[in-house]
Write a structure and sequence with these properties.
The protein has 294 residues and is of the alpha+beta class. The protein has 12 helices and 6 strands. A 4-stranded antiparallel sheet has the order 3-4-5-6.
Length: 294
């Protein structure tokens, strides 16, 4: 029996009233992965098996897509080199299963090229960031989404690229992905209630001419505020206002795993506010994959 024939045989059993039979069919189809989705969708459109059949098809498609997202995220977590762009795309695919990865990468490459044309090795770190900001915020119009700060759209890289609006974390993710592709040592810093970037001093090897702070950062960048530059004293003042200790992690780059975990937390908070308990439950399941691996 061909693969398609085998799947079609299972599809015909989807509306079986016996829950045990349906549970077996459901598990078998989920195990086959996203490849069966077109066939399921075609059956939903063309087969007149009734409302139970259509409802179960819809649920199956979602379950297969969620299982695929979970499996891809597990693989990402277990890889030694955790690529931030790949991770951000996986998270976005939870909300947009048919996301066009090539389109996302093309959009980023276009921004990168425009910045690359204007920076050079003779510029200082400050000058490079000013050029970056001119293109990223000036030409492309990226800005902080203050009006709809808690929207789930702010946590999906594809919609942030389309709308040019995001929250502190998503803007920092875009900023750092493009910056690192240009060999600019700019990495995320996981502050409480905020997320910023650190421009690290990777070139200074002379201990007598140390322009970076004790954490190795030349300065910090607020991507949510059009790339404003600030120093560690402002972080200390920020932490003091929140009654937080000056922990080392608030001054140094965090891991890409920590970034994705926080991205999922933002999505959880967004769907909690909208009362979507099913999505909250699934997103918590995804975030729990990061336990002890940050």
């Amino acid at each position: 029996m061909s693969e398609n024939s085998s799947v079609l045989a299972l599809v015909r059993l989807i509306d079986d009233p016996d829950e045990n039979i349906y549970a077996h069919v459901r598990d078998a189809l989920i195990d086959r992965g996203p490849e069966v989705i077109p066939l399921l969708e075609s059956s939903w459109e063309h087969e007149d098996y009734g409302l139970l059949f259509q409802s179960r098809i819809e649920n199956l498609v979602h379950d297969i897509q969620f299982s695929n997202t979970r499996n891809r995220l597990k693989e990402w977590i277990n890889t030694p080199h955790k690529d931030l762009l790949e991770g951000a795309i996986i998270i976005a695919q939870y909300q947009y299963p048919n996301l066009d990865e090539a389109s996302v990468k093309d959009s980023l490459q276009k921004i990168r090229k425009d910045i690359w044309l204007e920076i050079n090795a003779h510029q200082t770190a400050y000058e490079k960031v000013r050029v970056f900001n001119k293109i990223f915020y000036g030409k492309y119009g990226f800005s902080g989404n203050s009006k709809n700060f808690h929207s789930p759209l702010n946590s999906c890289i594809n919609t942030v690229l389309e709308t040019k609006k995001g929250n502190p974390l998503s803007l920092c993710v875009l900023y750092s992905i493009i910056a690192q592709s240009l060999d600019l040592p700019i990495y995320g810093v996981n502050l409480p209630n905020h997320f910023v970037l650190a421009y690290m001093d990777e070139d200074n090897i002379n201990p007598f001419i140390n322009t970076s702070n004790e954490h190795g950062a030349l300065f910090y960048i607020n991507a949510f505020a059009r790339g404003g530059i600030f120093d560690e004293l402002e972080i200390k003042e920020f932490l003091k206002a929140l009654n937080k200790s000056e922990n080392r992690e608030y001054f140094e780059p965090c891991s890409n795993s920590a970034i994705l975990s926080r991205m999922l937390t933002n999505l959880i908070n967004a769907f909690q506010q909208s009362g979507n308990a099913d999505k909250v439950h699934e997103l918590i399941e995804l975030r729990d994959l990061f336990d002890f691996k940050l």
